[in-house]
Amino acid sequence: MTSLPAYFCAAANLAAAVALATVLAPGTPLVDEPARAAYVRENVTLWRAGWSLWILAAISLLVFYRWWGVRIGAGPGPLALAVAGFAADVTAESLLIAVAPDRPEIARASFALTGGVANGLYTLAGALLTLRTPKLRGTFAAWTWAVWGSGAALSAAALVEAPVVIAAATAALFALFVPWCVALGRRLA
């Protein structure tokens, strides 16, 4: 079985993380609300393209989790959690794309939905897949749990609206997650 889903997930999440660090950052809670709203209004096309990359990343994560689950015989539970996360994610990101440019007050709830709820469900699904994967031992297991720990920190920070912690946890999560996807793809190939 090919590892293409793992590589696709790594590439899509890398592209989304770069978009977040560049074209989306001035529209996030790291910036005060008036400046954030002005940036989004003045850069609607970039804003929408950036969040569209996050939807692609979410799709790639579902494909990857399905591939991983089938590969290890995990059953439907982890994928069901990831699908629930995906529903929350697409809802939040669609609001950020379609509504937030004209109604910036909706962004706050959208950030909590994508960063807190969706990411929390993705993290839980990944942790369940990890527990069901016999080939994860030693240093690789520690790396894997660091990924899920970063995801849990991001979710908690998003739910309590701690922008600096959100930024730090996001940076840690994607610095760990992107190469980890490739490594897990090779390990389970």
What does this structure look like?
This protein has one domain. The termini are close together. Helix 1 packs antiparallel against helix 3 and helix 4 packs antiparallel against helix 5. It has 7 helices and no strands.
Q: What brief labels describe this structure?
A:
189 residues; mainly alpha; elongated
- In terms of DSSP E residues, the strand content is under 5%
On the 0-100 scale, what is the average pLDDT? 97
Structural class: mainly alpha
Helical amount = over 70%
> Mind summarizing the main beta sheet?
none
**Run of helices and strands:** HHHHHHH
Low-confidence residue ranges: none
Large-scale geometry: elongated
Please state the CA-atom Rg, rounded to the nearest Å: 16 Å
Number of domains: 1
Q: What is the straight-line distance between the termini?
A: 6 Å
Total of DSSP H or I helical runs spanning 4+ residues: 7
Annotation, overall tally of beta strands: 0
Short note summarizing the structure:
82% of the residues lie in helices and 0% in strands. By secondary structure, the chain is mainly α. The chain starts with a helix and ends with a helix.
Summarize the SSE layout with pairings.
Elements (H helix, E strand, L loop, with lengths): L3 H21 L8 H10 L1 H29 L4 H22 L8 H25 L6 H22 L3 H26 L1
